[in-house]
Specification:
CATH superfamily of the largest domain: MetI-like
Largest sheet: none
Order of helices and strands: HHHHHHHHHHHHHHH
Strand content: under 5%
Structural class: mainly alpha
Distance between the termini: 40 Å
Number of domains: 2
Shape: globular
Number of helices: 15
CATH architecture of the largest domain: Orthogonal Bundle
């Protein structure tokens, strides 16, 4: 009887715990959304807070963001939506190529035996430990020597093979039976055919989870794109918002509104792909 009673109680307590946890995670988003309806002067004085002073709330920042019309009626166009499009382009191209190339490298390290295999994997682990800031100068020198400065190719090229993605995919692939690969070879598949027809479909959960992580990294990247790009028409969202910064606090409302609108793609991707994220994170830990 006590055992039967404990299960519903445990479920209720667990549900209450997750509701509280969810509220704690939503509080920063609520403060950010509330800040989009406040003026720049108020944000400069009180910052982001949870106090909705209804008599001071307005939609001027949203109007300026979407139409370019300022609170005084003047038209001051900006490139926010161009920056948004540029960020989407970088995320789609860089994310797709990173997933493909990183998974191919990981497949070679996981399922092929060759000299120096363990040395290469150790190099992958060591590169993961090096901060990006240390690598920026040699990366910039190389990109500049290749004539790729102020181009999206220069922004994306150094990250097309991600060491963290290689490590993650390799751990996932170690759980795939080698017999699947042998069966594909017996059926007449080439080595590329085995990868694209057999391995890639099996890796869908890993691709989904890593797509979110690489997409977030490319979307939020600031230092490297800001170092490479000099044309405002090629700026991404983080760089563009950084150009709106003012020490006088007269455009904090525009920056907060732009930031709120900028996180929408990441939230949507995470909400739709969360099942695959959990599945991909756990599948690589089980060897079959």
């Amino acid at each position: 009887m006590n055992k039967k009673m404990s299960n519903p109680v445990a479920k209720v307590l667990l549900g209450i715990f997750f509701v509280i946890l969810c509220i704690l995670f939503l509080i920063p988003l609520y403060a950010l959304l509330l800040g989009t309806f406040k003026g720049g002067a108020e944000l400069f004085v009180s910052g982001l807070n949870l106090n909705p002073t209804f008599e001071l709330l307005h939609t001027k920042a949203w109007k300026y963001l979407f139409t370019g019309v300022m609170s005084n009626g003047e038209y001051n166009p900006h490139d926010y939506f161009l920056w948004y499009k540029n960020s989407l382009l970088v995320v789609l191209v860089q994310g797709s190529l990173t997933l493909l190339l990183s998974s191919m490298v990981a497949y070679g390290l996981a399922k092929y035996n060759f000299k120096g295999k363990n040395v290469i994997f150790m190099c992958v682990l060591m590169v993961m430990m090096v901060p990006l800031e240390i690598l920026m100068l040699p990366m910039y020198t190389q990109v500049n020597a290749m004539g790729l400065r102020n181009s999206y190719a220069g922004v994306m090229l150094p990250f097309l093979v991600s060491m963290s993605a290689v490590f993650f995919f390799r751990q996932f692939l170690t759980g795939i039976p080698y017999e699947m690969i042998e069966a594909g070879r017996i059926d007449g598949c080439t080595e590329y055919g085995v990868f694209f027809r057999i391995i890639m479909p099996v890796m869908k959960p890993a691709y989904a989870s890593m797509a979110v992580l690489t997409g977030m990294g490319a979307w939020n990247a600031l230092l490297w794109p800001m170092l490479v790009l000099s044309d405002m028409k090629k700026y991404t969202i983080p760089i563009g918002l950084n150009t709106l910064w003012s020490p006088y606090g007269n455009n904090y409302d525009l920056m907060i509104t732009g930031s709120c609108f900028a996180i929408l793609p990441l939230l949507l991707i995470y909400l739709f792909a969360q099942r695959f994220i959990v599945e991909g994170m756990t599948a690589g830990a089980v060897k079959g």
